[in-house]
Design brief:
With 207 residues, the protein is α+β, with helices and mostly antiparallel strands. It has 7 helices and 4 strands, in the order E-H-H-E-E-E-H-H-H-H-H. A hairpin with a 3-residue loop joins strand 3 and strand 4.
């Protein structure tokens, strides 16, 4: 699932990461084993992951465990989604199980959208809309507790929206029809309001 033409949706790293040095086969195996352990834990205990499994089932889909795979990714990213191949988790860029939780939740939002709304992943606006929803609903843009203590609710809300826009654009820029980052930002801005406000299958955003 690592070839570029099959990466219809990707989760960017939480911060800028350089490509890693060449890993030994032993190190690759170790990273994938750890990723599999994190994944198994989240599939049993993560409220968000379990909720998304149920909602995808309610929408008429099914998440097969063998379609959520831990792999060594050549490019800096946390994961990816393909409607036929499933979810890729990048073992060499996911540092801990909490980042894996957010990444898996992000990709499951794409899975839900693909099941419920029949997304055309080659349509930039469809792709951008799902990236906005995934960034917003997965928890990856949740505001840290200490930030909440020092900011008003308006600042918290705007901070969440800025994070969602930034991360959605970082995903959209990898789309084969996207020209550059300016184009990605433009597309995200065009669909942001309606897609950000659509919190299905959640009742609200928990930031």
């Amino acid at each position: 699932m690592s070839s570029p033409e099959k990466q219809l949706s990707t989760t960017p790293p939480q911060q800028q990461q350089l490509e890693q040095p060449v890993l030994s086969e032993e190190k690759k195996a170790e990273l994938c084993r750890q990723c599999d352990e994190y994944k198994s834990w989240m599939m049993k205990y993560s409220p968000t992951v379990l909720f998304m499994f149920d909602q995808i089932k309610n929408a008429g889909g099914y998440v097969s465990p063998n379609k959520i795979t831990c792999e060594i990714c050549p490019d800096p990213k946390l994961g990816g989604f393909h409607p036929e191949m499933g979810i890729q988790l990048c073992a060499n860029y996911i540092p801990d199980k909490w980042v894996l939780n957010d990444t898996l939740s992000h990709e499951l939002v794409h899975w839900y959208d693909n099941t419920r709304f029949k997304v055309d992943w080659m349509d930039l606006r469809h792709h951008a809309c799902s990236e906005i929803r995934a960034a917003s609903l997965s928890g990856e843009c949740a505001i840290m507790t200490e930030f909440k203590k020092n900011a008003g609710m308006m600042k918290i809300s705007k901070g969440h929206q800025r994070c969602v826009k930034r991360r959605a654009a970082l995903s959209v820029v990898g789309h084969p029809k996207c020209k550059d980052m300016d184009h990605a930002n433009q597309i995200v801005d065009e669909v942001f309001r309606s897609c950000f406000n659509d919190t299905r299958p959640f009742e609200m955003i928990y930031s």
